Amino acid sequence: MVHSKLADSNARGPQNAEIYNEQYSVLASKKHPALLGAPMIQGWAEIAEALTVTFAKAVENRPATITDDAPLYVDRNGYLKEIYFSFAFTPMLNEYEFTEGSYTAIAETTKQQLWERRTRT
């Protein structure tokens, strides 16, 4: 996996099994290490709908997408917490130009979003 300051994930195969770097394991919290090699949807059940929509768009249109400050409710340490992420989602194509997986670079932006929310009021 890529050595990066961002959390990087590579999902491959029909189940989108995930491999990821050390920064992603921090983001995954208690989901790590069980998430490593597990299907993406199974590992991130609480945000499965958002992941499915993003991946379906990539399979259909093959665009790389960049999303800024997406609010998601993620299981952190046993409870759902509002977390913000910016991410670049890139479909990975095989030799026949079919989407076989994805590469995603992720940055958590929760602290910035909460600070902005508090300073607006």
Structure description:
Strand 4 (79-93) and strand 5 (99-108) form a beta hairpin. The termini are far apart. The chain is α+β, with helices and mostly antiparallel strands. The chain has one domain (7-93, 101-120): Beta-Lactamase. It is built from 4 helices and 5 strands, in the order ββαααβββα. 30% of the residues lie in helices and 39% in strands. The model has no long low-confidence stretch (mean pLDDT 89). The longest helix has 14 residues, at 48-61. It has a 5-stranded antiparallel sheet.
- Our Rg estimate from Cα atoms comes to 15 Å
Shape: globular
Task: Note poorly predicted spans.
Answer: none
Main beta sheet strand tally, sense and closure? 5 strands, antiparallel
**What is the CATH topology classification name?**
Beta-Lactamase
Number of DSSP strands? Answer: 5
CATH class: Alpha Beta
Q: Bin the helical content.
A: 25-40%
User: Could you give the order of strands across the largest sheet?
Assistant: 2-1-5-4-3
Labels describing this entry:
alpha+beta; 121 residues; five-stranded antiparallel beta sheet; Beta-Lactamase
Question: Topology, pairings included?
Answer:
Elements: E1 7-12, E2 17-20, H1 22-28, H2 40-43, H3 48-61, E3 65-76, E4 79-93, E5 99-108, H4 110-120
Antiparallel strand pairs: 1-2, 1-5, 3-4, 4-5
Question: Could you give a short description of this structure?
Answer:
The chain is α+β, with helices and mostly antiparallel strands and 121 residues long. It has 4 helices and 5 strands. It has one domain (7-93, 101-120): Beta-Lactamase (2-Layer Sandwich).
